Amino acid sequence: MSEATTVGRSVLARDSAHEPQDGNGSPASRLLHTEDAAAEPSFTDPRCDEFLLLNKLPSRAAHRTLRAWWEAQSWDFRAESGWDYERLAEGLAAFLGVHAAMAEGATLRMLEIRRGRDKSGASEKYDLIFKPGDVVCLVGPTGAGKSRFLGDIECLAQGDTPTGRTVLIDGAPPAPESRFTGEGKIVAQITQNMNFVMDLPVAEFLKMHAESRALAAPESAMQRVLEAAISMAGEPFGPETPLTQLSGGQSRALMIADAAFLSPKPVVLIDEIENAGVDRTRALEFFVDQGKIVLLSTHDPLLALSGARRLVIRNGAVQQVIEPSPQEEANRVRLAALDRRLAHLRERLRLGERLDEPWAQLVGDTTTN
Amino acid sequence: MKLVTFAGPPSSGKTAIILKTLAHLQRDGRKVGVVKFDCLASQDAERFRAAGIPALTGLSGNFCPDHYFITNIEDCAAWGRRQELDLLVSESAGLCNRCAPHIRGHLAVCVLDHLAGVNTPRKIGPMLKTADVVLVTKGDIVSQAEREVFAFRVRQVNAKARLLFVNGITGQGSWEVSRLLEGAPDNAPLTGGKLRFSVPSAVCSYCLGETEIGEDHQHGTVRKIQIEEANHV
């Protein structure tokens, strides 16, 4: 695997050297497919076999170049396959080039959100700066503007969204061409509505994701995600468990572990994951350890108090920035104990036990354990 | 007038995302219209008209839908100019995935949805391969990990396009799409222009209404499946 990865990288390096940097030209000309003839892609890369196989094309055999291979095909085939040489060359170059392009993880040192305006047009009071490892909570009623705030970060707003906010990456506006692409996005999302829809065992899927990142050691990356996910989930599962059979808590745990260790996105947005049967404190630790900026849209007391800051959003704007007080911090510790206690009760129910001891005994002393 | 082609498999969310996107342009004072190409039936024109968007419906019926598209798009564009539109969107379903309604010099958009599975990008051909913008819908209900794998698979067949995740229900991403449509080429020539991908070369007896099965009834350009006898499992 690592050999193929290296090859993929070198191909891209070659490709990008050839391709002029998206320079002048109107936005439209940059957007449209250019008609210039594709350079002859490498035909000695073993990944060419994968490309041919995928497109149900005859094998590479002993041919050293794509043109030689194409010309060796029968006239019928060339006329009827739906391909022509230029399209093949372009397709193959795209296929070979994509690997390393996806591998480029965005590194981010600082995310800045410059103030915009609220729904009535009044200026916001805060400019915000987020750094790797920051955990920031967003609170406010439905319709207050939480989604819009997150939307501004997602599209790297440049004063051109309804809120007028400006997002800066490492102190500068993002490159215009990175703004309107999925890959240019810096936010990974985990929401309550998300599911795994793929019918694959956990390990196979993780491997697929690791491969798409062109990681040097997909096997060990996969192992790390799996271990992290299992450590967060209430009930264990294995590499052979089909994704679609995971419980709500298990799949949420897997999504969290995957976003922490396999996703290239430097910002993670978590939208309401309470009640999912996931060790939330540990989930946050994974993100912080991986240097992610974590945005939590939540009213779960334990999670909301875990953030270094709480943004109170009302009427379309950040109205207040709260840093937890020492008392809140002390309360968070007690809430965490309460949370563990509840998890323990859930576990006992799962084992078929009764919860019929006196209340004080049942709840225990929440300052310990 | 700008002409933009939208193509994608049936029920991938084309109409929903077009509606959300055009709403942004309408707010900016642009006059927008839609022509919907389909095979047998479509109720989408009413949805567009309800949103204050002039809409045409073209049903190909017994004709090959892609041939029907290319023989009618000029008339539709002329209609759009008579309506004094700033932007005409042509929407067509992917149908057999063999062809693509994308025209050189005009912005081409392909709409896919995450629920179709990660192998879809490899199956749908020129409609995706030749697009300038790829919109992937329904991402709100699949995991981030699957979204990333999907994006990778799209990239493997089209490395050049802008790839955006959008949501036709909430409108997430539609503002970005509207900016891309604003940047589409204006008044690009249509007559004398070229499709990005050829339509099928075949004309056979079944194209002309034949319904009977059997070699005696197969005339014209016919292609036979290659069966490898040694291939038994």
Structure, described:
The complex is a heterodimer of chains A (369) and B (233). Chain A is built from 15 helices and nine strands. By secondary structure, chain A is of the alpha/beta class. Chain A folds into three domains: 2-101, no CATH class; 111-324, 3-Layer(aba) Sandwich (Rossmann fold); 331-363. Chain A is flat. With 233 residues, chain B is an alpha/beta fold. Chain B has one domain (2-182): Rossmann fold (3-Layer(aba) Sandwich), CATH 3.40.50.300. Helix content of chain B is 30%, strand content 18%. In chain B, strands 3-2-4-1-5-6-7 form a seven-stranded parallel β-sheet, with helices on both faces. The longest helix of chain B has 18 residues, at 65-82. Chain B is globular, with a radius of gyration of 19 Å. The mean pLDDT of chain B is 86. Chains A and B meet through helix 2, helix 6, helix 7, strand 5 and helix 9 of A and helix 6, strand 7 and helix 7 of B.
Short description:
The complex is a heterodimer of chains A (369) and B (233). Chain A is of the alpha/beta class and 369 residues long. Chain A has helices at residues 2-18, 27-31, 47-54, 66-72, 75-80, 85-103, 146-154, 176-179, 202-212, 218-232, 248-261, 280-289, 301-306, 326-350, 359-363, and strands at residues 111-114, 128-130, 135-139, 166-169, 187-191, 267-271, 293-297, 309-314, 317-322.
Comma- or semicolon-separated keywords:
heterodimer; A: 369 residues; alpha/beta; Rossmann fold; 3 domains; six-stranded mixed β-sheet; 15 helices; 9 strands; flat; disordered N terminus; B: 233 residues; 7 helices; 7 strands
